[in-house]
Amino acid sequence: MTSPLSFAVLGPVRAWRGASELDLGTRQQRLILALLLARAGGAVSVAEFVDLLWESDPPPSAVNVVHRHIGTLRRRFEPGLPTRAAGSVLVRDGAEYRLRIDDESLDLLRFRRLVARAAAASDESAVQVYRQALALWHDRCAAGLHAASRAHPEFAAVDGERFAAVRAAADAALRAGCAHLVLPAIRLAAEDEPLDEQLQARLLLALAADGRRAEALAAYADVEHRLAEELGIAPGGVLRAARDSLHDQDTPVPVGVEPPAQLPPDHPYFAGRREVMAAARALLAGDPRTTALVIDGMPGVGKTTLAVHLSHRLAARYPDGQLHADLRGFDSGDAVMSPAEALRGFLWSLGVAPAAIPAELHAQAGLYRSILAERRMLILLDNCRDWDQIRHLLPGTGGSLVIATSRRRITGVAGAAGAHALHLDLLTDAEARELLARRLGDAVAADPAAVGEIIARCGRLPLALALVATRSVGRPGLSLPAVVGELAGADGRLSGFGDAHADLEAIFSWSYRALTPEAARLFRLLPLHPAGELSTQAAAALGGLPARFARGLLGELGAQMLVRPGGGRWRMHDLLRAYAVELGEEHDDAAERDAAVTRVYDYYELSAYAAHLLLLPQVALPEPEPSGQEVTGRRFSGRDDAMAWFAAEQRVLTEVVARAVEHGRPRTAWRIALAMQNFFQDTAQFRQWAAVVGTGLAAAGDDPAARALLHRSLAGAYYFLADLDGGLSHLRQAGAIFERLGLRTEQGHVENNIAEIRLDQQCYGDALHHAQAARALFHAGDNVRGATTALLAIARAQGGLGRHAAALDMFVRAQRQFEAIGDLHGVGTTQSWLAHTCSMIGDLPQALAVWQQAIDTFRGAGAAHHTAQVLVAVGDCHAAGGAAEPAGQAWREALAELHGTDSPMARQIRDRLTLLR
């Protein structure tokens, strides 16, 4: 007895006889079958087939070709059928053809039956039935057979049935309070139809109902931008109403998430400034729309001290926390913080996962303002350069406040709604005396004449007064007249900061001469660091010192010459930095200064290489040569430690890449750029990745191997920025260089990367070609791991072509090969793909069993991060099926694998558990 036939058109076109999948032949034959299946048993004319295959320019033989294709399909469905026999499956009806199929043999008919059932059921029951119906969809109707921009009307109509079902399922789930059950289906549909405002509105509402309001706001910002860019229109009423509903929900801070508290410590000896403080309070009291206070004034006048003090006094008014960023507006070159960099840091602090942060500045700002619209927060922005740097960081509406500082009057503040400028001048004589009295105690009242002389020599500048007070406190036996005498004996001026109010160099030199010789030398070398802020280890490398000794010297400097912004880092005030530059040029010869620069660049190159090895690098980076200055790189305890270091040093490393060439170190530039790739990838900083590696590519000059590696890295950045054509261009440039150099293994990596992109473009045949080419190159180079990795891409391509049985077999083969070479990470990755494929074809018991194997493998390899990733997938699978208890158990195990860290993944898991509770 012949096994029954079954067909699928809700995704790639497929057919089976019993459990065996049929080979459906050429693209034209599959298109013919697709149209017959989309008609679901209805008749299709030969003329329609001709239009489908050739559009407007069919050949003279078109009708005959259609008949040949139909004959071939008939024999595939009924083997042994004579050449001109009519058959019983694909039958002719006059000048038309149709398939004889029943409700159970075609996924489209099963889908329609389930949707009809759901429409007649109660909301709770309907959601379950809709889930069954939507699970039948694996892609667009007849996926892979037509251009994404132009689907046949028949296929588009079937797609329309899916989108209508998604909308109905979303509405039922929202009414029943179980939006999470259909959220995956809504996501997929919204991705397929990014300009469908009805679908996008449902996505926003479902995300919000599932406790993902930040993600919902990001989705709105993205679709708003798409509509403007692609159609030139603003969101319609339905989408705006969905967005507005997000703001009506009274949940200012997610449950279980502590509000950020990032204010620097208040100054213990703050004095004066009563008029400015009163003016700030009056503005806040008089204008409820006030969203920003921008304090300007000369360097050293105490802007930051005032802003921090004012922020602490106002913090209680803003219960949802405080954010802080030093925008470095007056640092040199690329050290200035961009608005996108500041927004990314703020969004992380507000609980937005890195992968959910939009890439475009406008979308980041939109998401940021949307979150602030629900909260009352205080944002401190220090060292702002101009209006363009801060305008994206201002809250739009709501009850949040920005306090910003700048050394220049910022044009644009006066015209911005809710923004006010405050000018900070020198201390009055009374305020200066109060400042000294707080630091020096009763001695100030005992000798007012000497105090007056000190104030005059300091020009009433708070920075100068603070330095004198700190120095005096450090020498208890020094009388105030003696302080005056020492100040009078300190001569000179500070180039570039000459000021009629204060002889700053005299005051600085007075503090400088009190340093030990070792601390004084380190002080002179600190400006040679490529950025304004550095760690203790970097300072040790700069000075050629043991870390413990450097820590002691920094402590000595920190009492009066440095500030500590937090995180074990050190920073100089700009005025002191300028003074240290003058001292260095005067006292240290060029050889010693060059050696210091060499040491610190060695430190960053060696440390970046060591850190990148822990992040499972995709681009093979040459090991740097040992330092000729006996500098060693930082040691890391594991992946999380390496990621934290990259995060802390990101700005410094970016500056090193930008400046290394001018110091004669192009290799340092491109090697550090490559070392940062995986950090940028894991933190979703794709534009920064492209920018830094692009700088590295410019530094590589005529080094062909370096250029090829950098082109391959840039391809990855372009891939994640969704510029797949740009990614392919860089890969082809890399491949051409590797071919000229005869580096077959590297060619194999490029071919495999091209296969990955073609898989994403759903060009499965081309992906298969490149993956097979990669496998051949790896085999030629006896690179077993590379060949096995290429086999994974081949398996994915086979799955995309609808050959799931072949794909599953290849995954099993790949797993055995990884086992044979002892590559536990490869084994675990293969098991993860195998489980994913099982879940895609609906075999959830097998998927869960293989996921457990992947968990055991990754645990055996000590790969906690990957173990956690698999456990999250298991939990998500259980949650999608409504099984709350096993979902929670899997997520808790994932969190335990991360050992309580505050990584983005850990925060996402905690969010899931909070929602579950």
TrEMBL record:
Protein's recorded name: SARP family transcriptional regulator
GO BP terms: phosphorelay signal transduction system; regulation of DNA-templated transcription
UniProt record similarity statement: Belongs to the AfsR/DnrI/RedD regulatory family.
Pfam families referenced in this protein's UniProt entry, alphabetically: BTAD (PF03704), NB-ARC (PF00931)
Entry's Gene Ontology molecular function annotations: ADP binding; DNA binding
DNA-binding region: 1-101
Matching Gene3D superfamilies: P-loop containing nucleotide triphosphate hydrolases (3.40.50.300), Tetratricopeptide repeat domain (1.25.40.10), Winged helix-like DNA-binding domain superfamily/Winged helix DNA-binding domain (1.10.10.10)
Organism: Catellatospora chokoriensis
